[in-house]
Queue: 2 jobs
Job 1
Amino acid sequence: MSGRSALLLGATGAVGKKLLAELLASNEWNKIGEFGRSVTAPENMPPGQRDSRLEQKVIDFENLDAAGLKDGRWDVVFVTLGTTRAQAGSAERFEKIDREYVVDACRAAKSDDPAHEQRVVYLSSAGANASSPFLYAKSKGLTELALARLGYSETIVFRPGLLKGAERADKRLGETVFGYVTGALSHVSPNFEIQVPMLAKAIMNAGLLGSSRLPAEVGAKKAGVEGASFTLIDNKGSVLLSRAQET
């Protein structure tokens, strides 16, 4: 791909805002779309990084036909959209936002041109498992498989550990407590936590490189099930990929 276009869904979240900054700072993208229930306000835009390549659009996930997602002919669709049950207010609302909105938006953004190679890069979570008895892990696992079935040229999934340095409006007690544990363990192994800016950089690099060009040391592997396979990058791989050079 040369002069690529990128669509970002979920740019106002902890990882999404850092990913948007990475996209804007890179010369690899000739068009960047920030579509979501809300978009980044001008005063919150990274300094000096507001430019004509950026298209911002508030969309209604309940009426995606009117969103025009397909019109952008996006080469890479980045998804950092997600929520928690507490934020959503109920299990049903959580699944709608965390899975249905994500899958439906990616379906709407998929090109009708069979010659147009598109990849989708999805931020999932450590422990994601479609068969999990736990709501959060199950939703992430089901979303991974649903995205892999959409027919994109390839699907890349990140399952990072604890997000360090996440700038959230809500303070999550579980993350704070678990952070003390992973912080100690990180001195032994890089598999437990990752700085948010590093994760954002890794996600962008995956979108640029694609599965076939990922460095071997990243340790990406094929995952999923028959008819719904994807490339999986774990926490250690994310750390290593964040250091890869754009090409």
Note: The mean pLDDT is 89.
Job 2
Amino acid sequence: MPLHSGHSTSLPDDVVRHMHVLRLQAGDKAILFNGEGGQFEAELLQLDKRSATVQVGRFDAREVEPPYRVVLAQGIAGGDKMDWLLEKAVELGVAGVIPLMTARSVVRLTDERAARRHAHWQALVRAACEQCGRNRLPDVAPLTDVMTWLESCAAPPRDNALRLLLSPRAEQPFATLPGTAPAAPVIVMIGPEGGLSATEEAAAISHGFMPLGLGPRVLRTETAGIAVLAALAARWGGW
């Protein structure tokens, strides 16, 4: 949504609902962002059940992103796990999410259902940004078959990305990662419930992914990515 200082503008439905949740009233102050960085001060002029108008004020170039870029390539999880994972990943600073359909994925989505789920995930990410104060919107890619996605990944990576494959079979521990954040992007690949198949792991390794272990305990799929994002924040200055 375009925002311009000194102009009044109507807000989209999801933002109107969020303002009702916050119990805002006409005359209250708010912070608005368009997902591209920075934020605007605003005053709520009018709030009805389904509409709201604000006066857009001063722009603040405030940045809250980590000093590194991590993309989570996640085998989709069943039930509410994927929603929970996305919400927490946004709070922990993930720059993007690539949902992957894998051989052991519990959830199977047709093209129509996959499109609806993708729209749902995008809305969830926007809501999570509003809740945690992020003003850059993480990208959520459309659901993709894992082997198709891997074939699209150049080997070796042209962008010098650090590619990490979380696997309970990996011998290299997390502690061997560099102590400072790389300038290049980081892609963390995680399987669904039951993990990636041996064929999928072999394909990932052939495309430049480094197998990485998280210790002797096997973490659930919705735990592994969050644990890594939190650990990287502590290690690379993301807090």
Note: The mean pLDDT is 91.
